[in-house]
Write a structure and sequence with these properties.
The protein has about 425 residues and is α+β, with helices and mostly antiparallel strands. It has helices at about 30, 120-125, 130-135, 150, 160-200, 325-335, 340-350, 360-365, 375-410, 415-420; strands at about 25, 30-35, 40, 50, 75, 80-85, 95, 100-105, 105-110, 155-160, 220-225, 230-235, 245, 250-255, 270-275, 290-295, 305, 315, 320-325, 365-370. Helix 6 crosses helix 9.
Length: about 425
């Protein structure tokens, strides 16, 4: 591979460059410096320190560091340097510095040489193609680390500087749209969290601080264990050769399918039951059943109401199903299960060092304050409408991210062409 211009041409090119010469390509270590200058920790303020902990995943920028390291020195970085977390590269923790500061030893500092504009280097590294390449050379299973020698050999394509600038400007504008949409999602989630804190009574209280006008004189809520309001069932212990990825079987609803607020599906995690289902009727899910993951790192935090697409799926062991005759009641309970109060309850239960879990009995014993049926419906309607806004905003964010990914695949020559 050489830095000479070649016949490398991306699928999509801006009109003013369509007749221009092909792109060059070279190893990243030739086009950029892997900086390793050390500075004393005394020269670095907390807000200017970057580690693998405070670089955000999915190219999300950085958060303020919570503490400084105990080492005497850190790696110096400058404004416009690229900082890449070298622990679990698949998390896509890549940030373009907008200030000077110091980085931990697990953060790689990459600085553009004259052939590359810093903003183009940012587009090159905040790119799934780069992350996929780094992962092919990563070492370790539980905590993979990128191999710096392999990283320096990354075949980096580059056009003329005017075309680099055009690509960087285009992707930067798209990044701004994505960031604005992400802020909108976060603002809606924060608003919902604050609203729930007002609409539900606090610990030890029987009335909320905020009530709809028609219920302000309705009196206290009734505190009851959730088991008195729901029919709770734990899933069936499916096992053996009848469980497979064979889509001709009956879908299984497993804990891995349940996320925060929704049921997710993909070919890697979906499983099906190909045996007889005659004796398993009670494990079939119905519309508006509430399912809760009963073990794992997010035990109690992963719950969802069953939508039409998942009716008829079979409930597997270690997932709880809560069912009521009233749709408004289960929606009201669902909001309480998604609250910080229930999450604190689960955390209090899980004090051992083993795999976090919660039992069906413990779910039944969780106490909820219940208002009248009419007020339950009003609260559920309000929060469900807000959730719909959050879902729509989240989907729009996903569309923007997908659009950017597809655009980058068009704006850069394919990895196969660069390697050739």
């Amino acid at each position: 591979m050489s830095g000479e211009t070649t016949k490398l041409v991306p699928k999509l090119r801006f009109p003013e460059f369509q007749g221009a010469e092909g792109w060059g390509a070279d190893g990243l270590g030739t086009l950029a410096d892997f900086a390793n200058e050390k500075i004393s920790l005394e020269e670095v303020a907390l807000e200017d320190y970057v580690s693998t902990e405070n670089i955000l995943a999915d190219y999300g920028g950085i958060a303020r560091a919570s503490k400084l390291p105990t080492t005497d020195s850190v790696t110096r970085f400058k404004s416009n340097d690229m900082l890449v977390s070298n622990i679990r590269p698949y998390l896509k923790k890549v940030w373009r510095a907008d200030k000077d500061g110091g980085a931990s030893n697990d953060v790689i500092v990459i600085r553009a040489k004259p052939k590359l504009l810093p903003q183009y280097l940012s587009a090159l590294l905040k790119n799934d193609a780069f992350i996929d390449y780094v992962m092919t050379g990563a070492k370790g299973v539980k905590m993979p680390r990128g191999d710096i020698a392999s990283m320096k050999a990354y075949p980096a394509p580059y056009p003329s500087k005017p075309e680099q600038q055009k690509i960087a400007d285009c992707l930067s504008s798209l990044d701004e749209l994505i960031a604005a949409q992400a802020r909108k999602v976060d603002a809606l989630k924060t608003h919902k969290k604050g609203l729930m804190q007002q609409l539900f009574p606090r610990e030890g209280e029987t009335q909320p601080r905020l009530r709809f006008p028609e219920f302000r004189t309705a009196g206290e809520w009734e505190v009851l264990p959730i088991g008195e309001k729901v029919e709770l069932l734990s899933g069936y212990p499916f096992d053996g050769p009848d469980i497979s990825p064979d889509t001709t079987g009956v879908p299984l609803l497993r804990g891995i399918n349940v996320t925060e607020g929704r049921v997710r599906h993909n070919a890697e995690i979906d499983r099906y039951f190909t045996g007889s289902v005659e004796a398993l009727e009670k494990y079939k899910l119905q519309l508006n059943d509430l399912v809760i993951g009963m073990d794992g790192s997010k035990v109690g935090k992963n719950s969802a109401l069953i939508a039409t697409a998942d009716t008829g799926a079979l409930l597997i062991q270690r997932v709880a199903r809560l069912r009521t005759k009233s749709v408004d009641l289960i929606r009201f309970i669902s909001q309480q299960i998604n609250s910080s109060k229930f999450h604190r309850y689960v955390d209090k239960i899980n004090t051992s060092s083993g795999i976090p879990h919660i039992s069906a009995t413990q779910i039944k014993e969780f106490c909820i304050a219940f208002p009248s049926t009419q007020e339950q419906q009003r609260i559920a309607d309000c929060l469900t409408s807000l959730e719909a806004l959050i879902t729509a905003a989240t989907q729009e964010l996903a569309i923007l991210k997908t659009h950017k990914k597809g655009l980058m695949q068009q704006l850069f020559p394919s990895a196969e062409a660069v390697d050739a």
